[in-house]
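Quick check before the chapter quiz. The format below is the same one you will see on the exam, so make sure you can read both the input and the output lines.
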Amino acid sequence: MKTFFVLFALLLALTLVQCTDNSVIPVQEDFVTKGPGNGGGTGGGNGGGGHTEPAGNNLSFPVLAADGFTITPLANPTFTSAYTGPFTGLTTEDLGVLEGYNWYAQKVEGNIWQADFNNVPQGQQVDVTFVDWGDAVEAVDPKIGRPYRIELALYNNLSIPMRAYTMALLAFPSSPNETQGTNNTLYDSYYASITSPNGKVVVQKFTNQETLTWDGTKWIGEGVSEPITGFGFAPELNVGGKYIYGASQGGWTPSEIGNYRITFYMEGGSSVNLSSAFIADNISPEIPKVAENNQAYVDMTNNLTYVDVQATTGGGGGGH
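Here is the expected output.
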C-alpha cells in the first residue's frame, strides 16, 4: 500500500511540474525553483546568478555523490547579504512567493549554505529512480550553427528524507543571469539528485536507427558517425543549487542537417545503475519520435539513456 501511494504521488507531481533547464523535479511544495536557466557553477557550466562576486553556487538540493565524487561539508551556514533587487522579469506570482521573507542570493560572498548530501562509498550501488532531460533537448530541435545545450539530471527516490533549502527565483528568469536564492528555510525532501564523474555523453549522426548497436562507449551500425567532439560535459552545481550534468563551451553545435542520437551513459566501473529508471515526463514512452518534442528513453540493458533529435536549418526559437 505504501508503494502505491509513493508512486501515485510521484505520478501526480510529474503532471503538475514543468521540466526546465534547471531540471525541476517532483518535490515538496516548498521547492519553488521556476523557469529555465543555464545553470552555472562547477564543471564548466554557463553563467548564472546575476552577480559578479567570486563565490560559487551553494548546494540547495540533496545529492548522492557516487564513484569517488566527494563533497566537502561546511562548518556553518551564513546569511550576511539579503537580496534587495532588482527583481527584473518576475511575474506577480513570483513576487508573491518572495513576500514575508528575507532572501539570500547564490554567488554572493557571505551567503553560504549546504543541503544534505551523502558521499556514497566506492562500489556501493546507487539506483536511479528517474532521468530528467532538460527542456532544451526534449522540446527543441537543434539548429545548424547554433549552440545546443545538452543537460540532464538523475534522481533517487529516498526511503529516508534529506534536508533541502527552499529556493525561489529572484531575477532575470530564463537567461544566463538568472538569479535564485534561499530564505534559509529547510524542508524534508524524499528525492536526491545523483552525481558521478563517470557520467558521459556522446552525440552521433545516424541514418538508420534499426541497425544501431551499443559497444560500451558509442553506437555502431550502418550509417552512424563517430562521436562528435568539441564541447565539454561534466557534473555541475546549477543556480538552483542542484547537481546536474551539462555541456560546456556553449554546448554542441551541429554542422549538418540530419538525425542525431544524444546518449548519456555511465563509464565502466560506475556504481550508478539506470536499469530500473524511467523518464521523468513520460513513464510509458511509445513509438520513437525524431522531431521537436523529442522522446527520451532508458536502455536498461546497456545502463544508458538517449534521445534522438533532428538538426534543421535556422528559423524557430528555442532558447539557445
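If your answer matched, good. Residues 2-16 form the longest helix (15 residues).
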